[in-house]
Amino acid sequence: MSVSLLWAVDVYGRVYSLSTGGQQWEQCQDAVLEFKRVTAVQQCCWGIACDHHIYLNVHSSDVPIRYQEETYENQRWNPKDNFSDHLLPSDRWHWSDITGLEHQPLDSFLLPSTNWEWEGDWYIDENFGGEPTEKGGWTYALDFPATYIKDKKWNSCVRRRRWIRYRRYKATDTWAKIPSEGHSGPLPDPFNDISCGGWEISEEPRGRLSLWAVSLQGKVWFREGIHHHSPEGEGWEEVSLPGEVVQISCGPGDLVWAVLWEGQLIVREGITRDCPQGLCWVVVDSPNPEAGAIHVAVGDNVVWAVTKDNKVWFRRGINSHNPCGSGWIGMVGEMVMVNVGLNDQVWGISCVDRAVYFRQGVTSSELSGKAWKAVNVPRDGDIRSHSSASISKGGPQRAVLEVGTCPSSPPPEPPPIDPDVPKPRIPKVTSDSFISEMLSDRQVKQEAATTASPSIPEEEVWSNVDLEETQTHLAVGLSSVATYTLCQGEPYGADEHPLWAWVSGGGCGVNFWTLLSLPALASSVQSMSLSISPAQTAAWRKQIFEQLSERSKREMDHFKHYEQSVWVKKGAMQWWRDWKPHKWVDVRFALEQFSGPEGNQDGILFLYYNFNEEKKYLHAFINEVTILVPVLNDSKHTFAIYTAERTKQRWPIRLAAATELALLSVSCCDSRGIQGPPSKQAIWSVTCKGDIFVCEPSPSLEACPYPTPCDQMFWRQVGGHLRLVECNSLGVVWGVGYDHTAWVYTGYGGGFFQDNIFTQTDVKCVYIYENQRWNPVTGYTNRGLPTDRYMWSDATGLQECTKANAKPPSPHWTWVADWTIDYGISGGTDREGWQYAADFPRSYHGHKTLKDFVRRRRWARKCKLTTTGPWQEVPPIPLSDVTIVLCGAQSSVEPIPLWAISNKGDVLCRLGVTLLTPAGTSWLHVGTDQPFKSISIGGANQVWAIARDGSAFYRGSVSSESPAGDCWYHIPCPERQKLQQVSVGRTSVYTVDQNGNLWFRQGLTPSYPQGSSWEHICNNVRKVSVGPLDQVWIIADKVQGSHSLSCGTVCHRLGVQPMEPKGQSWDYGIGGGWDHITVRGNSIEAPRVRMPSLTPSLTSSLTDPLRPPPPRSLLPVMITEMENGNAVRC
Fold first, then answer.
1. Which GO terms of the molecular function aspect are on file (predicted)?
2. How confident is the model at residue 15 (pLDDT cuts 50, 70, 90)?
3. What distance in Å separates the CA atoms of residue 584 and residue 578, rounded to the nearest whole number?
4. Model-level pTM greater than 0.85?
5. 720 falls in which pLDDT band (50, 70, 90)?
6. From the CB of residue 454, how many other CB atoms can be counted at a distance below 10 Å?
């Protein structure tokens, strides 16, 4: 789980943050002023200080906030001066933007505020369209504006070049003041309330936020231009109102509610991507007409409110189509304020004891939750002040976190109260009396601290009266009594209880299932389970497992002379009949499994079905099964069975069953004697569905001339769900999910030992397309020609897909959002998300021309998968690619170089990666001039990368002393090609371009590691992986099968030798449906075979014993080539 922060302000204006990975409130020591309230999101926190100004605290990250400023230098040719800055009166400016309409000299660029700094001086961009330009960076054209080219021609009359300069945001982890200025000057009155949200309205531009503020006069202001490259925003704009507002709340999406002075509530409608401010307000009555509303809090699909009598209310019926909801539900409890954070988790501050509470039991199906639970976590200053006192008293004390009490248990008796001791006074915090109340109460607090006796305050538990199952749930569920040991120190006394004024959970990423797994609560579980530590539990499990194994072995030794045992499992499932008529057929199955006298196991799977009133059957030997693959199906749990023969034919047995897949997987592994975790040399692969498979390579896999055929490789599944996996031969394995979350492999923990199995989530989008055709009468409509595609279809247009019938990829996925227009599609869109073309299907563009008669737009809907596997999350930066250094089988590298690319295109180098800490410690940002998309590190720390424009780069001077290198070298791409992915081996570099062509880099030498030229190998390639032996594996498309062409097939390059690094031909294995493979962990060299000559007796000579292995070499010895079918039409 990624670490996030819960923010709060105490009644004295001090700001604290509680990390989901910490155990105490940490005070913001750099806050000079006292704050009234804060509003937080995951990347930053906004606050209003007592001077009524707004301040911003941006969280520091390993990837800095950088913004690229650019301007263009334009010149025109004339016979006298050649190219010069003497332009025609009708020309553009000498220094301009890309359009030429705005004058932009170098000295006109100023820093937005003092919170920014320049990284360096201006420099010329010598990269054009992924290819290097001539020295000087000039591009040429016939006239302004026109299409520019990098080479000068005889008719090139104008030229231009781009100048770049980067600025960096430096005010991280500190409070930066935001100017209170609008478009017409300073604002008329200071601010009183603030709320931040809106990051789910649109993903473009990145990191865009909506910031709403309320002034002392009841006016509402909206902060414009807040996004990743401009965290401060650009200016304030006033929003019209039906009355005076006292408080406002903004959710992650399009929900914005506010409270009027009269106690009514207003809802903002019409909030969209193009209009984040919305269009109009709608008035909603207060939950209690006699006691108007004073506070409101909104989330994704919830609205909570507090009235003047401190009663809490929940608004039902809230969704994107009905932001006003349908009615109020009264909740038990009295709160000063509430706040809705991520996952609609609710936080609040009680009006009784001023403690922070969270709402237990909030789920997507029960948004109102179950009960209020107090979070009494110590503050860092409290622990330091009490630590010395606890030691002097001669015994260790402990600070406690009271999470709740069971309603059925009697409440603890309060300690005796001394009447002479004054009670602590809780100030009433308002916007007008905040400072005076703080100062007066601080004096009372100091006087009371000298005489008050310590005591533990009695906690009050509230539950939902409108939910019938609440009392039962609290009695046996998560609300049971729990005292959590957090640290050494004295318990809070009545006068030391922290008094809170405001809380914000907008950046705290917890939910009902992860709330009790936080580190602050993790240690408590041990105290609730008889203080048994995880190490003791693991040792206990291991001891019992060894005793059971010895007992089983001892008892089975007496029965070795008996016949083999046979057991049969029978049941029903469905089988996909792959001949006409194609349909699912109900069949009976029988799995016969037997064990021989030596303990070896094998079995046969029978499928019985009826065809034309005849009883028939299919069968498959378990020891011949090479893989069991889950198959995407929106309504069934389906999987495919492959054998070596069926792999060649691309013709598996498809079955539908809910639980039999696990049974068959265990049987297949037992028949081959495979148990435990994958080896360090394992080959990892990922299907297009996200399932992860591993294969244990045999020593002869890279042998020559007769390697192990790919179709005979056995693959087994590993838990989890990822988009790609990368590894090396030291056993370090990383993965990246579809939601760009980074994961590190923790070691296999299946079977009896479940210590390394963790919950893993992944989020992906399902896309459908809305298609329209233009006609002269009505314009663009959803009425197409008879030969057109469906008006609602998939990307190909061959299958009808509407919002109503579109389903998640499989029953394991669930929808987590509604349908939204996707503006991030390749080629760009207009303001409504449309792309235009002359006809279906053609290349689409984001602007309409006179020749465009069709258009389309893409709709996206997010779905979520929750599964388990031996993977732990590596927060907080989302990644798009990762690579780990290649190593030999006996190598020992400390630390292990690991490079990655963030989802924003930043290049990162991971520090602290070792065998003991495979997750590493921190990221080191490596500067680039443009965003990247693929990266690979090979032997001798060779780092190659591909930029998003398709250009290739080589990183120079990378070493253990300089893990990030010093500079990037631009590598020319193959002619008229843009590269997509790169993989670097020990001495080889392969790339795949956007058209599916595979390229080999020639001329690589230690003195010139950039190489000299590209050589085309083959086409129809999706991914390539080069291993530590320079072996080459790919994911290929359009591989011929017995029925049709197969896409996503694992292929192995044969004939790779030191003198022939490009190899000769392809051997294809499992597929289709594969999307990624990595062989970067397989450094097992093939044994050498004594081969005096290539004669017909060669086959019989291979049966002789192998000669002793020669001295170790990093490359296999290839003797001859082996002809095989070309998998990718080379």
1. lipid binding
2. very high
3. 9
4. no
5. very high
6. 14
